[in-house]
Amino acid sequence: MELTFWSPIKLSITIAITAGCIVLLLGLILGKWMAHKQFKGKLFLETLLMLPLVLPPSVVGFLLIVIFGRNSFVGTFLEKLTGQPIMFTWWAAVIASTVVAFPLMYQSVKTGFQTVNTEIEDAARTDGANEFSIFLYISIPLSIKAIVTGFILSFTRALGEFGATLMFAGNIPGKTQTLPTAIYVAIDSGNMELAWLWVLTTVFISFLMLASTYLIK
């Protein structure tokens, strides 16, 4: 019982942290680039980046299967690289969580970078600082509240991902069974006691994470 209870919790937290770190890196890069850039097709690209936020999870899962499945170029390449298909693996769950969590990180980080006074960055350029130094020592520190908030929201969203994960990663106990899928199976099998324990655990973790966003100063 104890092993059954803790396994999806540990897996969900590990997947959410991994996905959170990936979206943090991607969000910083794309958020900074999109914050002040104006170019043809920007509206289309931004809409594309935010699309997973509004798409049904089943659609996201279907698209991931098409992109990373064994019949796709990407899926074939990754299978040759790793020696196994990407679907129904731990990394499949990470990819699904990353895709659905990214829009929250991106929007938060981009908004944070847009609030940075560009005169401060221009002054640093005048003093001879390169773009990476400006990004690392000026842009990020001045946007840290938005960055941390974006990470927390992304982590919480990744923790609760269900539909796309179920379709793309499956529900393999100890391997890809996360909290949401474990709750679904527990309810389906009539094990309401275990389902309630997982539900309360999810609510507790999510509540703490969301409450912490209001404490960021």
Q: Pairing-aware structural class of the strands and helices?
A: mainly alpha
The tally of helices reads 11
**Which oligomeric form is depicted?**
single chain
| Biggest sheet architecture | none
What's the order of the H and E elements?
HHHHHHHHHHH
Rounded average pLDDT: 91
Low-confidence stretches: none
Instruction: Please give the radius of gyration in angstroms.
Output: 20 Å
Span between termini: 41 Å
What's the count of strands?
A: 0
Helix content: over 70%
Strand content: under 5%
Shape by Cα distribution: globular
Membrane topology: Multi-pass membrane protein
Function: Part of the binding-protein-dependent transport system for molybdenum; probably responsible for the translocation of the substrate across the membrane.
Keywords: Cell membrane, Membrane, Molybdenum, Transmembrane, Transmembrane helix, Transport
InterPro entries: MetI-like, MetI-like_sf, ModB_ABC
